Amino acid sequence: MTAMTEELLSALDDSSKDVGEALTLPPALYTSEEVLDFERDAIYAKEWLCVGRAERIPEAGDWFTVNIAREPIIVVRDKEGAIRAMSAVCQHRAMQVCEGQGNTTTFKCPYHHWIYGLDGRLLGAPAMERTENFEKSDWGLPQMRVELWMGFIFVNFDPDASPLAPTLERYSKYLVNYDLENAVCPGTFTLEDMPWNWKVMFENFNDGYHANRLHQYVQDFCPSNLSAFPEPWSDDSNVIFRTSGYTHLDGGFNATHRVIMPVYPDLTEEERSRSTFALIPPTLCFGTAPDQCFFFLVRPKTAQTIDVEIGYIFHPSALEDPLFEEKVILSDAGVQVFVRQDQDATTKVQLGLNSRFAPRGRYSWQEESHVQFNRWLTQRYRAGWSNRAAATS
User: What average pLDDT score do residues 212-226 get?
Assistant: First the structure.
């Protein structure tokens, strides 16, 4: 049975109405491998994909790999200090050239020892001298576009993609006082094979409706009724976000309801009285609090499983504290309460979406961000559907 149909596409209209009228997305969008295959072409091949923080590769030759939508990617800082992204697929027999991270001057495919430079050029190809019309200059690693935003590295497979930063301006102004380019991410950790669709992850991250319901007691300082959607949605925007007000200054997502790390020093009193939660689909979930920022890098593996890389970002002064490591442990202990509750909820949501009784539900006003995400998604689905139809006609 085919999941991607004109009827399914038409059904998205009801998910893009005003929040008081809209229906939730059709359940098939969360469960079907055919839908994910469609998304690989319609979304992942066209959109800006966040792969990590620039500070992860500070020196020339530093590199790491990431796999997004079945595409292994090398992210590297070249000899001139520029960040590059390229396919990790050897152009000889398609073996992945490298995995993990490190520092190097060249990349050598372990299969037949083809050697590539930090710029992706093919530098060496053993025993190819008898191959007719073989020019090393024709066989470099395919390159991707790169853009930096707030210290994050984004890549794009589409050479004609419009710049990312102008499409994020609605949210960027909320981050100015965090000076994220100079903030510090001590490291990340990855949760593998989480049993839910990538869109379930995005919806849960930016769902103000469940804030002090699912997270009762631990998030009472940041209640659902203080959710706000301060910027009207724009069709040319690539960010969906909300603010979440606190009941007191310098709230913290832990059992004390107070910050643990040093507060970012340039924040206004208003900024110290709220968090922001933002989606930059299809890969980055990002949030702010007075003493830290946090991000989830979401990478689908199947229609119903994802990997999630998680990191925290602090003001540099936090690392000067002799008790920094101990405070990180305390802070993370509080966050893990939320993580456990969210993981239980999203696992059960995904199970429910597979049910014959899975609904197309209605939204609360506190879920305005979901409707904005639906509109973002519908635009890409329609464009991808049109492109597929044109390719087959």
Answer: 93
C-beta of residue 155 within 8 angstroms of C-beta of residue 46? no
Tell me if residue 56 falls in helix, strand or coil. Answer: helix
What Rg value do the Cα atoms of the chain yield, rounded?
Answer: 22
How far is 254 from 331, CA to CA, in rounded Å?
A: 7
pTM summary value: 0.96
Cα separation, 140 vs 127, in Å, equals: 17
pLDDT digits (tens, 9 = 90+) for 12-66: 999 999 999 999 999 999 999 999 999 999 999 999 999 999 999 999 999 999 9
Can you tell me the distance from the alpha carbon of 228 to that of 211, in angstroms, rounded to the nearest whole number?
13
Give the chain's domains with CATH numbers.
6-45+165-386 (3.90.380.10), 59-145 (2.102.10.10)
**Whether 17 contacts 371, CB under 8 Å:** yes
pLDDT, tens digit (0-9, with 9 covering 90-100), for 329-348: 999 898 899 999 999 999 99
**274-289 burial, b if ≥16 CB within 10 A, otherwise e?**
bbbbbbbbbbbbbbbb
